[in-house]
Amino acid sequence: MAVFLRLAVVAAATAAAASDPYAAGYPSPWASGGPGWDEAYAKAKEFVSGLTLLEKVNLTSGTGWQADECVGNTGSVPRLGFRGFCMQDGPLGIRFTDQNSAFPAGINAGATFSRRLMRLRGEAMGEEFYGKGIDVQLGPASGPLGRVPQGGRNWEGFGADPYLAGVGMAETIQGIQSRGVIACAKHWLLNEQETYREKVSVTVDDRTMHELYMWPFADAVRAGVGSVMCSYNKIESIYACENNWTTNYLLKNELNFQGFVMSDWGAQHTKLGSALSGLDMAMPGDFMSASKTYPPYNAMWGGNLTESVLRGEVPQWRLDDMVVRIMAAYFKVHTGKYTARPDTNFYSWSQNAVDFLHKSSKTHRQVVNKFVNVQGNHAALIREIGAKSTVLLKNTYSALPLRRPTSIAVFGRDAHDDPAGPNACPDRACINGTVAMGWGSGTANFPYLIAPVTALRARALADATLFANISDNYNLSAAASLAASASAALVFVTANSGEAYLSVDANAGDRNNLTLWDNGSALVAAVASTNPNTIVILHTAGPVALAALKANPNVTAILWAGLPGQESGNAILDVLYGAVNPQAKSPFTWAETPEAYGATPMFKAADPLNPAQTFDEGVFIDYRHFQRSNTRPTYEFGFGLSYTAFGYANLRVTPVVDGVAVPAAVVNAGRTAAAPTFGTVDRRLEANLAPEGFEKVWPYVYPWLSGRNVSVAPAPGAAVTAMTNGSAQGADVSNEGEVAGTEVPQLYVQLGGTENPWGVLRGFEDVHLEPGETKTVVFELTRRDISNWNTTSQNWEIWGKEKFVFVGSSSEKIRLNATLPAPKGLRWTAS
Ligand SMILES: *[C@@H]1O[C@H](CO)[C@@H](O)[C@H](O)[C@H]1NC(C)=O
Ligand SMILES: *[C@@H]1O[C@H](CO)[C@@H](O)[C@H](O)[C@H]1NC(C)=O
Ligand SMILES: *[C@@H]1O[C@H](CO)[C@@H](O)[C@H](O)[C@H]1NC(C)=O
Ligand SMILES: *[C@@H]1O[C@H](CO)[C@@H](O)[C@H](O)[C@H]1NC(C)=O
Ligand SMILES: *[C@@H]1O[C@H](CO)[C@@H](O)[C@H](O)[C@H]1NC(C)=O
Ligand SMILES: *[C@@H]1O[C@H](CO)[C@@H](O)[C@H](O)[C@H]1NC(C)=O
Ligand SMILES: *[C@@H]1O[C@H](CO)[C@@H](O)[C@H](O)[C@H]1NC(C)=O
Ligand SMILES: *[C@@H]1O[C@H](CO)[C@@H](O)[C@H](O)[C@H]1NC(C)=O
Ligand SMILES: *[C@@H]1O[C@H](CO)[C@@H](O)[C@H](O)[C@H]1NC(C)=O
Ligand SMILES: *[C@@H]1O[C@H](CO)[C@@H](O)[C@H](O)[C@H]1NC(C)=O
Ligand SMILES: *[C@@H]1O[C@H](CO)[C@@H](O)[C@H](O)[C@H]1NC(C)=O
Ligand SMILES: CC(=O)N[C@H]1CO[C@H](CO)[C@@H](O)[C@@H]1O
Does the residue 635 lie in any domain? Predict the structure, then answer.
């Protein structure tokens, strides 16, 4: 077999624009439409023009923690029969409800390296969120990106490479939004660890910011994402949700984001600072103290934002812009078949049919759960993705696929059901049964969970294979003794991670180490001590130390199944028995110690009240670090075996006609026209008080002024409306076409010079090949793909260093290479 490759290079001359990013953080750029947004923007403008001040404030302000049905709700516009927005976790399915699907985690979607499967997963999730009456799905995630392997929430994203994560973001977002639901790209920005996440101040150089951490978000914006969530951490001492540089300048100006920014839950710290720095929606609307004791419930927006607008501290145009952005995202996804939106028909805070609508107030008992089944036929897709995201790391003596073995024995708690049921532990924070997702807010209830032992036993029965199993990880003599008699011994082991508010085995979100949990290494060693055909299956949230297993001749096969979701057992069955030929590639590098990764998390801050961290390693995370330091990992990024072999030949590189270069950011030297305002503001005190007789429930957040004593006189030095502003489109990124298949040729580009990694991923395609079949794979490179970020000119520029392209089956198994011809007007200098 052979895969022929042709490279097409889109290149263009460089256009530079001088600017100072730090001076350009104000004012907050106002939405203006643009490609993919014009129609939605026009509808939003019209809608917002008809709203009162209070109604506008209502749509920006959360009603409070547990105040309504969803994990976050905004106020509504009863006058127009427009209900408020419902925001619901998370990136792999709907949290806190029933009869929903539990999809494979983001890290598994990344491991497929398949645009098709990423898109289908997004569509299926979007259908489920739509069916429950949810407006915003709180996902996908590409922050954390995976700077450190212990990162507790790495599994919610697509892998430790910005290009892979960017493709995952774009496909997932387009899938979700095609089904009438707004996606939310999170967490913006530099939220790379759970430890200290609500305090840590992160510093990163501007080039790394662009080439690594912003990259997937840039792809999310280009895919038309409707919302972005700002994160808990600080960036250079300023909280992400009050940060004029990251939100106003980078996201809304440079990336030209037209949707809205919402806070992570409790990540808003100021009323004015957040509003002027580009926050558009406060979630959940009241103050969540770090100690998790409620109340105080001090809302920063709601009535307090109304007051600030009346006093001129927040200009009307800024409030109007918040609402236009929110409504533009709404109109953008509500088109065609999805014009209407179903009522919210579930309840996050209990599974009762009847309960308090306002749990925070314990009022308004009514029917809250309607138990709508939204699963459709998604189980088949979940099984397919589960199998096609399973990475075959080792396969010796043709151990796999299994061919009707005489007897199999299955070991490990991770192969078995949690005796208390798959949802027994709150937000999945335990390892009491097979692990099929991490823990925290990025989880969903399982509708059911097929444990590996269930699927394997059924298959053994059908094949007349003798079957036995042991779930105890600590009775090593029993394991060794059963293993001795089996023709294949299948050991299931785990290492999990999650979100900081829950700890499992003293792992407070981030993992404390890279070893297997639950006595996993000892269990594998015990089984392998008596069985020369030991097959190890890993359900881990990220890399674990595998050198001992790799070196053990009795361990004939190793598979990483990741966090596969509800069809776990069926998916691994398909791979083990060859119904699916493994095609996945590892979305991160596997090494033996955390130190080997060259990037250090901060578990113990010198100053625990003001922890600060600099990402000194720059762009050299994961495989880029291993290549630079010339150390071999156990298994590299992009690695994954198949039951067949592939040939690569005939690499051709073809420059494509120069495209037009679009500067990354254009900063206006002069003044723009004043920001637009929509509708009028009734400034009278009476107009902004709750209507006579309105019964407020405490502590629900309302848009009305808190009382007659509020002064609505203009505040001294209040913000002015006409300021400089500039925005421009980022350079385009082309999506490659869809090719289904089983090998994933990967394209790495060497940009040249010591400041660049040996190679960076810039293309991949899953190609299905019948035996003997040859297909040509075309990768298209964009200008950004062969550029570096110039921190002086604030632009993507093709540096003059000689560049190479490498094509291979992983970041190390390079099969073909070629030099990249210099685009017109450039001449390469040697690296
Ligand atoms: C704001 O939203 C709340 C909750 O939906 C609603 O009760 C209230 O009437 C709204 N206020 C206005 C002025 O529309
Ligand atoms: C705006 O951002 C810049 C760059 O981070 C920072 O120096 C400045 O203090 C910020 N301004 C405010 C008011 O936060
Ligand atoms: C406004 O802020 C004050 C002080 O933080 C708080 O007590 C009050 O509840 C807020 N008002 C509203 C309407 O949320
Ligand atoms: C999980 O298992 C541990 C020990 O095996 C037990 O103490 C705990 O109660 C279990 N958790 C749940 C929610 O079943
Ligand atoms: C074997 O698996 C079944 C579930 O399929 C479980 O009930 C049983 O406890 C397991 N046996 C042992 C010895 O762990
Ligand atoms: C280990 O398993 C064997 C065989 O099932 C049993 O006899 C023994 O009691 C077990 N030991 C422990 C400590 O559970
Ligand atoms: C690593 O952490 C896991 C989970 O807490 C624990 O079970 C294991 O013993 C730890 N490994 C080492 C070598 O301490
Ligand atoms: C491999 O298995 C055989 C039994 O088949 C055993 O004698 C040998 O010690 C095992 N080797 C290792 C490294 O566990
Ligand atoms: C309203 O303001 C007046 C004068 O400042 C003050 O005496 C009074 O206590 C205030 N009333 C309330 C309800 O805050
Ligand atoms: C970056 O841009 C500046 C200003 O345009 C230019 O002088 C410099 O040569 C550029 N750096 C590189 C490495 O191209
Ligand atoms: C490029 O490929 C040639 C064989 O075609 C090989 O000799 C050379 O070492 C390769 N270069 C690199 C950097 O991989
Ligand atoms: C590393 C580890 O915890 N190993 C334990 C595995 O289980 C056996 C039997 O309970 C213990 O003896 C080991 O210490």
Answer: no
Catalytic residues: 264
Task: Name the pLDDT band for 670 (thresholds 50, 70, 90).
Answer: low
Q: CA-CA distance, 241 to 245, in Å (whole number)?
A: 10
Cα separation, 483 vs 113, in Å, equals 35
pLDDT of 812 > 80? The answer is yes
Q: How far apart are CA 612 and CA 235, in angstroms?
A: 9
637 domain-assigned:
no
Nearest ligand to the C-alpha of residue 711? 9
Which tens digit of pLDDT belongs to each residue from 323-382? 999 999 999 999 999 999 999 999 999 999 999 999 999 999 999 999 999 999 999 999
The reply to whether 152 and 87 lie within a common domain is yes
CA 345 to each of CA 103, 130, 374, 586, 754: distance values in angstroms, whole numbers, following the listed order: 21, 10, 11, 39, 56
pLDDT tens digits along 56-86: 999 999 999 999 999 999 999 999 999 999 9
Q: What residue owns the CA closest to ligand 1's atom 10?
A: 76
- CA separation for the pair 429, 88 (Å, rounded): 19
Tokens of 634: 């156990």
CATH code of the domain covering residue 506: 3.40.50.1700
Percent of the chain with pLDDT over 70: 91
CA 225/CA 219 separation, integer angstroms: 9
Ligand having the closest approach to the CA of 468 = 5
What is the Å distance from ligand 6's center to 523 Cα? 14
Which residue did the predictor score with more confidence, 715 or 641? 641
Which is the closest atom of ligand 5 to the Cα of 470?
14
Proximal ligand: closest to the CA of 473: 12
Question: What is the CA(475)–ligand 6 centre distance, in A?
Answer: 6
Tell me whether residue 702 is in a domain. no
Q: What is the pLDDT of residue 662?
A: 56
**Residue that is last in its domain, among 637, 672, 688:** 688
Calculate the average pLDDT of the chain: 91
CATH code of the domain containing 792:
2.60.40.10
CATH number of the CATH domain containing 261: 3.20.20.300
Range of the domain at 301: 15-343+684-688
Expressed in angstroms and rounded, the spacing between residue 684 Cα and the centre of ligand 4 is 59
Residue identifier of the C-alpha nearest atom 1 of ligand 7 = 513
Mutate which of 5, 749, 817 to test ligand 11's pocket (most atoms within 8 Å of Cβ)? 817
